[in-house]
Specification:
By secondary structure, the protein is α/β, with parallel strands linked by helices. The chain has one domain: Cytidine Deaminase, domain 2 (3-Layer(aba) Sandwich), CATH 3.40.140. About 30% of the residues lie in helices and about 20% in strands. The protein is built from six helices and five strands. A five-stranded mixed β-sheet has the order 2-1-3-4-5. The longest helix is centred in the first third of the chain and has 14 residues. It is an enzyme of class 3 (hydrolase). GO terms for molecular function: diaminohydroxyphosphoribosylaminopyrimidine deaminase activity.
């Protein structure tokens, strides 16, 4: 079920987390927030938070057990479409999300084919997860990545 004001507010918070990312020339700066079914934030993450290979969703999920009951009906908000392929680690963010009962994924910016060909949104939809793309927030999500994608 869509709660547009909540989705907008939490997605903007996830986008703001991307500003904390240490700079990189071979990875996107991304922020992620996990909110339970009532909209309470239960985890956050951003790219390269503790390791140069960290992805935002991965960091947020690492703070919770995949069987945490708060994940039932939860939503993960990400400034960028969750990755479906990783060069640096064996498991993609899409795969990590699918290992949980998270039922919704809301993101701002579809991953450009700069590093990999991402199919996260399609794989999540194919696994019966609700995927909400809010492209009106893509310019804000691109901003901390301008050195990679220019004015796209």
């Amino acid at each position: 079920m869509t709660d547009q004001p909540r989705d907008h507010r939490l997605l903007l918070r996830a986008i703001a987390l991307a500003d904390r990312c240490p700079p990189s020339t071979h990875a996107f700066s991304v922020g992620a927030i996990i909110a339970d079914a009532s909209g309470e934030v239960i985890a956050t993450g951003y790219s390269r938070a503790t390791d140069p290979h960290d992805h935002a969703e991965e960091v947020a999920l690492a703070g919770l057990s995949a069987t945490d009951p708060r994940l039932v009906g939860a939503t993960i908000y990400s400034s960028l479409e969750p990755c479906s392929t990783r060069a640096s680690r064996p498991r993609s963010c899409t795969s990590l999300i699918l290992d949980t009962p998270i039922s919704r994924v809301v993101f701002a910016w579809r991953e450009p084919a700069l590093f990999v060909d991402c199919q996260g949104a399609e794989l999540l939809r194919g696994a019966d997860r609700e995927v909400v793309e809010l492209p009106e927030f893509a310019p804000q999500a691109r901003r901390p990545n301008a050195h990679l994608v220019g004015g796209e």
